[in-house]
Amino acid sequence: MKAIPFIPLALGLAGLTPFVWGALTMLIPGLGEWALQQLGGRFVGPFVGLSYGTVILAFMSGVLWGFATKAEGRVAHAGYVLSVIPALWVFFMVGGGPTAAAMNLIAGFLGLLLLDWHFWSFGLAPRWWMHLRVLLTTIVVLCLLPAVF
């Protein structure tokens, strides 16, 4: 695998901001109270991470769809079918309160990592893709864990 190019790495790390913010507002009570007063409940605690995680899993379905367009025949057909799983997962499984939603988002992101590997192993994703995805997925999961415990 190659090193991750700067722009995808920088954008990927910047995209973690809502997850990190949500975790910090759960782990630092004073910050959470300040954010609740200044920003409202949607941007505090588990809710910011859950909302953003829902968006990101749906977005990643589109990324995988794009990878599937690089394939042909049965590999392409399988790629298209697999690419919709993250969006369907988040639609059907994220709900039922913050704890259940966070657990299901964690499962969704770990499942997405398996799908990333599948597309990467078929040469449909860039050579550096798994380095980036493992890094980002690890941070996302760590940021969602406080909502579970």
UniProtKB/TrEMBL annotation:
<keyword id="KW-0812">Transmembrane</keyword>
<feature type="transmembrane region" description="Helical">
    <location>
        <begin position="75"/>
        <end position="94"/>
    </location>
</feature>
<keyword id="KW-0472">Membrane</keyword>
<keyword id="KW-1133">Transmembrane helix</keyword>
<feature type="transmembrane region" description="Helical">
    <location>
        <begin position="46"/>
        <end position="68"/>
    </location>
</feature>
<feature type="transmembrane region" description="Helical">
    <location>
        <begin position="132"/>
        <end position="148"/>
    </location>
</feature>
<protein>
    <submittedName>
        <fullName>DUF3429 domain-containing protein</fullName>
    </submittedName>
</protein>
<dbReference type="Pfam" id="PF11911">
    <property type="entry name" value="DUF3429"/>
</dbReference>
<feature type="transmembrane region" description="Helical">
    <location>
        <begin position="100"/>
        <end position="120"/>
    </location>
</feature>
<dbReference type="InterPro" id="IPR021836">
    <property type="entry name" value="DUF3429"/>
</dbReference>
